Amino acid sequence: MAEELTAALVDFRKEEVIEAVKSRAERGESPVQILAECRRGMTIVGERFQTGEYFLAELMLSGEIFKGAMAILEPYLAKTNPSKPLGKVVLATLKGDIHDLGKDIVAIMLKAQGFEVYNLGVDVSPNIVIDKVKETTPDFVGFSALITTAFDSMKQTAIMLQEAGLREQFKLMVGGGVTTPAVKEYVGADFQTTDATEGVAYCIEVMKGDQR
Asked: 95 and 73: one domain?
């Protein structure tokens, strides 16, 4: 049964996934186990995206199916003993940029891997980021950009985090189609990518190795 649910998600059979998740949860099966099977499906989709077998449309579709499954499982998960998240991540598209597609894909994929994700949205001011970092003490902060004018907002926010004495507490990531290794250096980030799956893999590697 576990393989069937995972395979259904990998094959984008939305109604089958939703029905299986709902019926199994209602029967009293472990929501943690059901979630793990859905996460496995998302991992496979991510791997296929990385190898070029799947494309952005498939990645988005699997994310929507996963979100639907999560919506069903959340009340059941809330009744179980809270499991410690793999790590905490704050994501934002900063002031001057309103693109959120890549950021939202990363958020979905991180949640699928067991991370606690705080997605602040788009056109976010530095002060909002700083307040959220103070509130949540994340392991990672990620800035997304699809226009080059956002680079200055990234740098400004990184400087403000440094001045607030918060910068050493987390790994700073920058991502998006217009980012490059040079942008990483300009902002003072620890990691840069244009590939959502690479970003998720980096977070997992850091947490498993505790390379803080």
From this structure: no
Residue 2 confidence (pLDDT): 63
- CA dist., res. 110 & res. 104, Å (int): 10
Please report the pLDDT score of residue 1 as a whole number: 56
Indicate if 100 and 74 belong to the same structural domain: no
Task: Give 205: exposed, middle or buried? Use CB within 10 Å, 0-12, 13-18, 19+.
Answer: exposed
Domains identified in the chain, total number = 2
What percentage of residues in the chain have a pLDDT greater than 90? 64
Within 13 Å and on the Cβ side, how many CA atoms surround 6?
14
The residue among 182, 121, 122 whose CA lies nearest residue 151 is 182
Question: DSSP string of 132-152?
Answer: HHHHH--SEEEEE-SSTTHHH
